[in-house]
Every structure is written in structure tokens, then in C-alpha cells.
Amino acid sequence: MGRPKILVVNKLLTDEEVASKEGTWIEESDIKYPIINENTDVYYLNNKKERVLLLKFRKNCINNALIKLGWDSYKDLAKASRGRGASAGPIATDSVYWKKRNLVNTNKWSTGYLTPKGEISKMKVNNQVASNPIGFYESSKNLGANLPCRLTHFTRTNYEKYNQGLPFIQKIDNLFQKLIPDSYAKQRERADKKSHLKIPETSFSTVTINRNFRTALHKDAGDFKGGFGNLTVIERGNYHGGYTVFPQFGIGIDLRTNDFVAMDVHQWHANTPLYETEEDKKLNEKLEPAFKDNPEVGTAGIYEKYTRISFVCYLREKIITCDDKIDPRFLTKSGHSRIKT
């Protein structure tokens, strides 16, 4: 990969200042250093003036064969979600999705709404975005049902695709091991304690797949605190922007197809807007449709001609609390049982 650049930065915003921006949009103007698009390690100085690793970015380190495998296997698995919290951004009341509903008790990035019976919804939800986890999840409640630790619903219903794409995910794991061996060892040891609930031959339990999802300022929740987040993207067509930004440090990353970044997802981060130039639009108009999307659904971002699918690979913190023996129906291809998770 060659010798990376080393960048050491200070906090440009206090912890309180950056936290106050949770759930808001971050812009390119929040990037204060040259945008990172070559091999670079970034450290920040903590309050004791000690170096702490923020991220390691590597260019062109995932080959095209694996990129194609990842696309073919996972491009359709970024399903609509209303549960992405602050990362989904301020409630877009003028969006296609929310214009069809009567909103109540709206607050920043969450809102209630009136049901067809005129009752206030039991849950408060977020903007609808294309974002979905595959792999394993800890026990949780879903519409009143207590669900055990399990493969997620869309993993079980797309089981062959999930397994087909594993070499792509395993490559991401290999890059994590190579770049941050200490953190990798801690995460792999933790993952191996529940080997029946980890993605085979990796330190990951879960991969969140996002499609054209511009995240607002957030910290990732539920990740193993001793590990790192591992990201890559697969693109189709042409676009600009979509930078991954750590506004507290003024850092922005231009993560593109074939690239990889290991980053501290417990620091505040977000994405800048995705947009097309006139030249981009001309090129994208020539693309054959890759998805069968219904515009009436109103999921943010997915009706563009271009595509940016991001893969966030991590270990769920609470997987360690799962039972060693789990009903096999929850750990394999969806069959006759109507389990939805």
C-alpha cells in the first residue's frame, strides 16, 4: 500500500459544541483540511495531548472482482428503514414520505404521526432512508414480540446472496487486521466467544448496508467499544460529494469504490450531500436502471440514477450477552416459520 501520510490534528470544537449539533446536516465548509483521498493515517490530540487514532484510509485496496461480488450479492439489501435515529437527519416535513402523513410531536430527528384510525402512533420514528443490517443481531423487541439473538430478517430471506458475498466482507476484515492489529485482536477475541453469531472468518457480527444515505451528525450506537468501524463503498454512475466528515477535527474523506477506511465510529461523524454536475447527469442518463424503486414510497435518496452503497462492518456490543444455544431456525435460511426480525 505504500507509506501513508500522517496527519495529527487538534479538536476544533469542544465536546459540548459538537454534541450540540447531533442530528444536523454537516457541509463541505466543515472540512478544514484538504479532503483525504490518498493513503493517510489521522490522529487527534486528546485533552492530555496524547495521540489517539481517528482513522486509517487506504486507496484502491479492494480489487474489482470483489467489488463486483459485493454489488451482485448485496446491492438490493439496503431496505427502507425509519429507525436510524439522529443519523437520518431533521424530519423532512416536505418530503414525499411525510407529506402523506399527519405528523404529531415532531422533535428534531423523530416524530409521531396519526394512524388511519386517527390515533397517535405508538412509536416515534425517523426519516425513511435505505439502510439495513445483515448478519447477526442481539435479542430485541419487535412489534411486541421478544426476539432472540439471530440472523436479521433480510439475511435469512436472502441467505444465498449473503453467503455468496462473504469473500467481499472477509476482505474488509483482512484490511482491518492488517491496519489496526491491536484493535482487531480485541474485537476478534470478543467475536470468537460467540462464534455462532459472527460472520464466518471475520471479527464482525453485522454489516449495515446504506444506499444513497446522507447521514446527519451522529455517533454509531451498539458497536463494540474496543473495536473499530470498517467502511467501504460501491458506486455506479457519477456523482460528487458524499464525503465522510468528522467536524470536531475538520477532517473529510472521499471514500470511493475500491477504497477502505477503518475509523473510530464513536466520534461524531456525518456525510456531506451527494450531488450531480451537469456532466454527471449526462453520463448517468445513459445508465440502465439497476433497481425497481417505487417513487411513491418516498425513501430518501434512492431515486437518483447514480448509486452509492456503503458497507459498515462491525461487532455488536451486546452479542456477548447472547445464549450459546439458539433455536436453529433463527440462524439459517428463512423457511416455513414466519419469523420476522
Notes on the structure:
- The protein is an alpha+beta fold.
- The protein has 2 domains: about 15-35 and about 60-90 and about 130-330, Double-stranded beta-helix, CATH 3.60.130; about 90-125, no CATH class.
- It contains 8 helices and 19 strands.
- Strands 1, 2, 3, 4, 7, 10, 11, 12, 16 and 19 form a 10-stranded mixed beta sheet that branches. It has a 3-stranded antiparallel beta sheet with strand order 15-14-17, with no helix packed on it. A two-stranded antiparallel ribbon has the order 5-6.
- The longest helix is centred in the middle third of the chain and has 14 residues, at about 165-180.
- The chain is globular.
> What's the SSE pattern?
EHEEHEHEEEEEEHHHHEEEEEEEEHE
List the quaternary state of the chains: single chain
Low-confidence stretches are 336-341
CATH class of the largest domain: Alpha Beta
Helix content: 10-25%
The CATH architecture category of the largest domain equals 4-Layer Sandwich
Report the span from N to C terminus: 40 Å
Over all CA atoms, what is the radius of gyration?
20 Å
CATH fold category name of the largest domain: Double-stranded beta-helix
Q: Give the biggest sheet.
A: 10 strands, mixed
Globally, the shape reads: globular
What is the number of independent domains? Answer: 2
Quantity of strands, as a count: 19
Output the structural class: alpha+beta
Average pLDDT works out at 94
The number of helical segments is: 8
Strand composition percent: 15-25%
